Amino acid sequence: MSPSTALRSGLVMFLLVAVLAVLLAILLPKSFFVDWGWLSGPTALLLCAFGTAKILGLPVARTLMGVLIAAVPGLLGVAVDVHWLGTLLAVIAFAVWCGFGPEPKRA
Predict the structure, then answer these.
(1) DSSP of 16-40
(2) What would the pLDDT profile of 22-40 be if each residue is shown by its tens digit?
(3) For the whole model, what pTM was predicted?
């Protein structure tokens, strides 16, 4: 495992998710997330994982697979209606996944 890759991927993912969440919260009404959260949340995570892969030089397909796997522990937070906890668990699982992958092509 590469702790450096795990830490960097977790920080970049967290930053991208936070920026996107704030942007969407400003632009969209709460009712959008009530009706479409089941689709917008996973889509946002996929977009942020794609951005993380591109920024860090990680393999895109493997990184996207990692975020799909990371969504499983993330669903625990959603299941108990604490969405921020689900997002945090997903980001941590995603970082661990990336840490066990190949070294980035660039830093």
Answers:
(1) HHHHHHHHHHHHS-HHHHHHHHHHH
(2) 999 999 999 998 898 889 8
(3) 0.89
Residue 16 inside a domain? The answer is yes
Structure tokens at 67: 């975020």
Q: What angle do CA 55, 50, 92 make, to 5 degrees?
A: 85
Distance of alpha carbon 82 from alpha carbon 72, whole angstroms: 15
Domain count within the chain: 1
Q: Does residue 106 form part of some domain? A: no
Q: Which domain covers residue 17, as residue numbers?
A: 3-99
CA distance 32 to 25: 10
Helices (H), the chain: 3-27, 30-56, 60-79, 83-99
